[in-house]
């Protein structure tokens, strides 16, 4: 993949972009093997990849420059702002929206926030696209509510230019820190969630809920989890750190599995419940709780056949590893966005063997990737 921004030394987000993609995959697989070299792995599956460019469904843009000439991209460095509107990671359907957003910023009088001076209102623009229906969700991250009325009044023009805009919101983030969003979200449209579909499973994305940025590879990841679980004798499962429910819903749909999904984000849980209702799942429970605290309170009762964990980069941690080891479910399915913390966690899960490992390249041209690992409890002799 060619990128003029990288070639000009303006953006270094894709640190591996100069490597042939086949080499990137090979090095990622080798790195994963090194991390797990002290752990016996019964089956290494072939790495899964997708397209090399235009794969991102979400753009996170820092807003800088002036209200008349806004710049969408990276924070100002050495006095200059870097515009990422031509980044080849975004599909044309997203890149074509940016010119209208720049015009809108000027029309609405949304002064870009200046970090050094601590002045201005508009900090970030977040844009998410649904591959299912090409709908868009647009979020404006503002320093305060000062410009909120101006934003509302100017929206009809933007909606006329971009009829695919389905969800629009303003997030209020008053803190002068490198924090992406605040606690207050103001929905500016009748619709509050963007519908996506992966493997014919409807998934809903609300402004503050997490969703994978590479839907093509995410679809393969969920399908693989469903395939692996379908070969096991599973009647009940927990989906911890479940987000909007992608893994659990894939595994429970068209099966007799009793599903319990746990996620600390109440907004994500509402999305998961909406998905479950739309596909007619009844033997299911989603709760907005801390996954570790939930396991701690439940590990002596109603032990599920399988526990699926999909933690953030920090991993599941020592406490949850201890609780899972005590619970001893027959199977643990670990989806990780940080193989280093996953390897550390697996070392702390006592009484389990690694049955299968597969790498999913969700982040081409970087050293990052996702991993799906299946562990089975070792039966007592």
Give the overall average pLDDT.
93
Shape: globular
Strand order of the largest sheet: 3-2-1-4-5-6-7
What radius of gyration results from the CA coordinates? Answer: 22 Å
**Amino- and carboxy-terminal Cα gap:** 53 Å
Tell me about the biggest sheet? 7 strands, mixed
* Estimated helix fraction: 25-40%
> What's the CATH superfamily of the largest domain, by name?
Vaccinia Virus protein VP39
Structural class: alpha/beta
Which CATH architecture of the largest domain is right?
Answer: 3-Layer(aba) Sandwich
Write down the CATH class of the largest domain. Alpha Beta
What do we call the CATH topology of the largest domain?
A: Rossmann fold
Q: What's the tally of helices? A: 11
Uncertain parts: none
- Number of beta strands: 16
Order of H and E elements: HHEEEHHEEHEEEEHEHEHEHEHEHEE
Strand-residue proportion: 25-35%
Keywords, please?
single chain, 381 residues, alpha/beta, Rossmann fold, OB fold (Dihydrolipoamide Acetyltransferase, E2P), 2 domains, 7-stranded mixed beta sheet, 11 helices, 16 strands
Structure in words:
It is a single chain. The protein contains eleven helices and 16 strands. The protein is α/β, with parallel strands linked by helices and 381 residues long. Helix 4 (98-108) packs antiparallel against helix 5, helix 9 (291-298) packs parallel to helix 10 (317-327) and helix 10 (317-327) crosses helix 11 (339-348). The radius of gyration is 22 Å and the shape is globular.
């Amino acid at each position: 993949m060619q990128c003029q921004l990288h070639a000009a030394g303006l953006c270094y987000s894709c640190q591996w972009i100069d490597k042939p993609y086949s080499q990137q995959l090979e090095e990622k697989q080798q790195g994963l093997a090194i991390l797990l070299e002290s752990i016996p792995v019964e089956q290494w599956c072939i790495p899964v990849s997708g397209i090399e460019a235009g794969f991102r469904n979400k753009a996170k843009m820092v807003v800088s420059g002036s209200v008349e000439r806004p710049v969408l991209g990276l924070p100002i460095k050495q006095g200059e702002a870097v515009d990422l509107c031509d980044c080849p990671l975004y599909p044309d359907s997203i890149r074509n929206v940016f010119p209208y957003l720049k015009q809108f910023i000027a029309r609405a009088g949304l002064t870009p926030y200046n970090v050094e001076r601590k002045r201005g209102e508009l900090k970030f623009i977040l844009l998410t696209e649904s591959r299912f229906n090409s709908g868009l969700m647009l979020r404006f991250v503002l320093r305060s509510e000062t410009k909120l009325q101006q934003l509302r009044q100017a929206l009809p023009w933007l909606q006329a230019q971009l009829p695919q805009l389905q969800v629009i919101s303003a997030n209020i983030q008053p803190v002068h820190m490198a924090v992406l969003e605040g606690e207050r979200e103001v929905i500016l449209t009748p619709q509050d969630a963007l519908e996506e579909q992966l493997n014919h499973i409807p998934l809903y994305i609300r402004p503050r809920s997490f969703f994978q940025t590479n839907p093509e590879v995410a679809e393969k990841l969920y399908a693989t989890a469903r395939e692996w679980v379908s070969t096991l004798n599973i009647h009940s499962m927990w989906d911890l750190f479940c987000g909007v429910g992608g893994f659990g819903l894939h595994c429970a749909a068209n099966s007799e599995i009793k599903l319990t999904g746990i996620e600390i984000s109440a907004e994500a849980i509402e999305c998961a419940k909406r998905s479950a209702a739309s596909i007619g799942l009844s033997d299911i429970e989603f709760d907005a709780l801390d996954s570790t605290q939930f396991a701690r309170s439940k590990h002596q009762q109603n032990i599920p056949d399988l526990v699926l964990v999909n933690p953030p980069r920090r991993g599941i941690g020592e406490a949850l590893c201890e609780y899972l080891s005590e619970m001893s479910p027959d199977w643990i399915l670990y989806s990780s966005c940080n193989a280093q913390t996953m390897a550390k966690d697996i070392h702390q899960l006592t009484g389990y063997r690694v049955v299968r490992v597969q790498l999913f390249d969700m982040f081409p041209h970087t050293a990052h990737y996702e991993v799906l690992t299946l562990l089975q409890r070792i039966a007592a002799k």
